[in-house]
Design a protein that fits this description.
Layout: H1 3-7, H2 11-34, H3 41-66
Length: about 70
């Protein structure tokens, strides 16, 4: 997922994407708690960065509407 793909999405689609990423992050934390060896640590980084991308695009969109 990159920022150009996210910029093409509507506000509702971005919210849905953010919700899905937050759930995925939660599930990874739960899996790590149950079996630390089963979860790859690079997945945490990818999910966290994707959450940041979505929030950045949402913030850009809201700033654009205010101007």
């Amino acid at each position: 997922m990159n920022a150009t793909e996210l910029r093409a999405k509507s506000e509702q689609e971005l919210r849905d994407e953010l919700t899905a990423l937050l759930r995925e992050q939660f599930n990874l934390r739960m899996q790590r708690g149950m079996n630390p060896d089963a979860v790859r640590s690079d997945q945490f980084v990818k999910v966290r960065r994707n959450i940041a991308r979505v929030k950045t695009v949402m913030n850009e969109n809201s700033k654009g509407e205010q101007s």
